[in-house]
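Hey L., structure's done. Input below.
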Amino acid sequence: MAKTPKKQKTEEKEEHEESGGNKEDRERAYEVLATRVNPIASPLAARKLTKKLYKTVKKASKDKNIRKGIRDVQKFIKKGERGIVLIAGDTTPIEVYCHLPVVCEDAKIPYCYVPAKQDLGEAAGSKRPTCCVLLKPDESYQTSYDECLTDVTTLPRPI
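Output:
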């Protein structure tokens, strides 16, 4: 029996994802995602920083040291928790999270935007997309956290 075109495409896509794709495809994928972000998504993390942030979020989610979702993140920032706030730049409508950078600046917490909420949700260990994550420091991944913290703080802030 011949495969249907839809089945064939999904199998090819799965094979490509398993192999990790080549470097050009990953760069192109980041560029495509970066063009889809909202106009207020500044500072947007670069490709290498985004990858580093996702890896650190994966490590933190294993230790249960992250807060997911806008309500949780905002609540714990007001309670005084420290860390790095990652915001998905492709979330619509903008009104959902447009107040969050101001909250972070008032609390002197570094923040940055990443291109895709789907990727942020997967890194946080969720099957659902996540708009926002608060990444808390811990000894088990302290070196990668410190690298991310210095990179995020050196990003140019919006005017």
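The CA atoms of residues 87 and 132 lie 4 Å apart. The beta strands are 66-68, 84-88, 111-114, 132-135.

-- N.
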